[in-house]
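Hey, can you fold this one?
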Amino acid sequence: MGWEFIAFFFGAAALGLFILFVVFIAGLLKWLLQGYFLFRVADIKSYHLPWLAFIPFGTFYIGGQAYDGNILKKESFDPKHIGLAFAIAGLVLYLMGLSIGDLVITYLLIESVAFIGLFTAYVKQPVIGVLLALLNVVTAGIVAIVILFLYSRKLKDEFDGTNNFGQDDLTGAAGADQKHNDSSRPSHPNDPNLNRDI
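Sure. Predicted structure:
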């Protein structure tokens, strides 16, 4: 009777350790992918301190800077101050958590709220940006990775001058020889964020 219990205990412990290892690897992969794509977006958009994308509360700082012009009126606040407010609020709320589960849920909620500006910048509609943030909480941050990947590709194409508004890569590459004004950012004529006063 005693050996069966010991075998069951060690089997359950081994299974628990394996599950913890899988969760750790999945979390590490999520952190690396999200950090990389957030860094690409922050670098292309010239956000302050893009390398903070790889630091947990630095994501709040980068996400808060995206509120400028997407959620709030452009230049109504200094984007760095918005990002700093998100980072401080996230840190305070994170430290107020009572258990490991509360801390993880709080972090996901604050991160999703901070990313509303990035989501809105990608989809160009604030309501859909909020819905994506809610979906990001439900999927434990997977939506943020997908949206940041798509947004970084979109920004890269816009700032490189290729693949604008339905042009394929060959047409964009062939037209790369022509002189164009690099200081102007291309925008879609139906962009609801143009001249938006919030």
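Confidence is low (pLDDT under 50) at residues 164-183. Let me know if you want another pass with a different chain boundary.
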